[in-house]
Structures are given as structure tokens and as C-alpha cells.
Design a protein that fits this description.
Helix content is 44%, strand content 19%. The protein is an alpha/beta fold and 324 residues long. Helix 3 (109-118) packs across helix 12, helix 5 (159-175) crosses helix 6 and helix 10 (227-251) crosses helix 11 (270-277). It is globular.
């Protein structure tokens, strides 16, 4: 029997590399998933619209629905780049032409990630990928966002941040005519053999994702026990811990508040996860002067209860129960 198209909700997670969508019933049963291209507000408008329509069409197809005629009761879209106010307004204005729904809700990507990870309960999410942002909410629904300022002004502890540190280290080593495991790995990753070629690799086709692509290499070396790689990775862990501690402080949250690591950076190294939960690595030069000294207590690190798309579905449902 085909699903009742008068009682369906839609959740969308628009990210910097892909868009994910899910169609579900009011009871929470997911009927179909779909993916599209880049879903960030930083993308070109036509590309963003195509990504949304593709992800929704694919989710509807899996659910046995025709996206051209299906009207949802409620749709929630979480997007990266939410701080771009004019683009956010333009997208919200365009949504009825892209998706047929009675209610629409547009949220930052970190908010739907929080909803999915915590199930709406108090806690803190630390989203670390190419960029980095920390978001917390307490039992009074007070919230705090830390970082998420982009690669020029923030994203401390991100994949880009780690890749940039590794590139700087490599250039310093090459200047002194030295070579170690990090420099060998970075030169292999970039295909460079000289300082000039490293600079050309960075600037001739600058992309934050390319720089962040060095992070897994450093993470692997850290897991293998290479000391300087461990110092680099531990530095990222300290920076992410600092964001969590700041959110806790601002919201007066207990030390055992659940903390949920989200994003691809957490997959690069078990050492990163360990140092984030409870730092123990002793830094060696040249990282001593950059060491974030806020070691503190062990974090109450928890596995996410659900995905960002599931968080979007929960907020879509909330719009039906208590529409804005």
C-alpha cells in the first residue's frame, strides 16, 4: 500500500559536500533516503536548488512517491553557511518553488545536528570536519555557539587547521634542510619536492578541502606513535576542548554534561578521540608555545543518538505540533 501523502514530513541536511534528505511518517518511520550535491548557502544558487531537488526526488523515489506531486505536512532544512543572511532569506523565499509543504523550517546545520545527536536533550555537539563549530543547549533552552567563524578567523581544531599546521611545519623543516615522517607524508600528499612547489600547491588552486585532506595523513601517523604528529593532533584536541569548555562556562553546565563529537575529523585518529576525552600528551617543541593548557577533567563523551537528517525530521515534526 502506498504511504499516506497527507501525513509525511521531510528532513534535509544541506552540507558543504553533499545534501541528504529523508521522508518519514508522523510516527518516525523513515520511508526513504536521498542525496544530492552541495547544500551550503556558500554554493551558487542554481547548484543549491538542484542539490535540494535531487536529494528530495531520490528520497521520494525510495519511498515510492513522486516528488513532483507529493505535498509534505512539514519540511525542515538545515544548511551550512546559515550566517549569510541575504542568501538565507533568498533560500527561504524560494523553498515553496522547490518543495511542496504546508510548513517550512530553515535552521543552521549545527542545530539539526544537535537535535539528532542529543534527541533534544541538554548537551554539547562538537562538529569537526573541514571546519569546526561547537554548539550547546541547556535544560532551560539557553544556547551557545562557539567558533564556526570560517578558516580565516576561526575553525580552530578543524581538518583545515590541522592541515595548515602540517604545511607550516613542513616548510620550516625544509627551510632548515631537514626531513621527517610529517614532511615526507605532506610532500607525498601535495606532490611537491621544494618549498616553491608546496606554495604553488596551496595557492594555485586554493581550496580549504585540499588543505584539510592532509589531516587524515597526520592522524594516521599519530596513531602509529610518531611524536610530532601526536603533538599536532593533540593541539587540535586541545582547541576543540577549549570550545567545549567555553560553551559549558557560558551555559553554567555541569562537568559531566554529555559531549557528542560529530563530523569527519573524528574518524582520522583514535589518538585524537583519546586526547579530546582526556588529554595526556606531553608536548615537545615547537608546539609548547601553542599548547592550550585547559586540560581539565575527562569529558563525558557520548555516541550520537541519531543523524543530522533525523534531527531535521524531529524539528519538522515540532513545527506541526507547535508551528512558529
Amino acid at each position: 500500500m502506498p504511504p499516506d501523502t497527507t501525513a509525511l514530513i521531510l528532513g534535509i541536511d544541506g552540507g558543504g559536500t553533499k545534501t541528504a534528505a529523508a521522508v518519514a511518517t508522523f510516527s518516525g518511520t523513515i520511508l526513504g533516503h536521498g542525496e544530492g550535491g552541495v547544500g551550503s548557502l556558500n554554493a551558487r544558487t542554481d547548484c543549491l536548488h538542484l542539490s535540494l531537488k535531487t536529494a528530495v526526488a531520490n528520497a521520494c523515489e525510495m519511498a515510492g512517491l513522486d516528488s513532483l506531486v507529493t505535498r509534505f505536512t512539514s519540511a525542515c532544512l538545515g544548511v551550512a553557511g546559515y550566517s549569510l543572511e541575504q542568501k538565507r532569506l533568498d533560500l527561504f523565499t524560494s523553498l515553496p518553488s522547490l518543495i511542496s509543504s504546508h510548513f517550512f523550517r530553515l535552521e543552521p546545520d549545527y542545530r539539526i545536528a544537535f537535535e539528532g545527536a542529543t534527541g533534544g536533550n541538554p548537551g554539547i555537539v562538537v562538529i569537526a570536519g573541514t571546519g569546526a563549530i561547537t554548539y550547546g543547549r541547556d535544560n532551560l533552552n539557553r544556547e551557545w555557539r562557539e567558533d564556526g567563524l570560517g578558516y580565516l578567523l576561526g575553525d580552530r581544531g578543524s581538518g583545515f587547521n590541522l592541515g595548515l599546521q602540517a604545511l607550516r611545519y613542513t616548510l620550516e623543516m625544509m627551510k632548515d634542510g631537514r626531513e621527517d615522517a610529517i614532511t615526507q607524508a605532506v610532500l607525498k600528499q601535495t606532490g611537491a619536492g621544494t618549498q616553491s612547489q608546496v606554495l604553488q600547491w596551496i595557492y594555485s588552486d586554493f581550496q580549504t578541502a585540499r588543505v584539510a585532506g592532509i589531516a587524515p595523513v597526520i592522524g594516521r601517523l599519530a596513531d602509529e606513535g610518531e611524536p610530532q604528529s601526536r603533538s599536532l593532533v593533540a593541539l587540535m584536541a586541545r582547541r576543540l576542548r577549549h570550545s567545549v569548555r567555553e560553551a559549558k562556562h557560558r551555559l553554567f553546565m555541569a562537568h559531566d554534561t554529555p559531549v557528542y563529537p560529530l563530523g569527519g575529523l573524528w574518524n582520522i585518529s583514535r589518538f585524537l578521540q583519546q586526547e579530546f576525552a582526556e588529554p595526556s600528551w606531553q608536548f615537545t617543541a615547537p608546539w609548547e608555545r601553542e599548547n592550550e593548557t585547559n586540560s581539565g577533567r575527562r569529558f563525558n563523551v557520548q555516541q550520537p543518538a541519531g543523524s543530522a537528517v533525523q534531527g531535521a525530521l524531529a524539528l519538522a515534526m515540532l513545527s506541526v505540533v507547535a508551528p512558529d
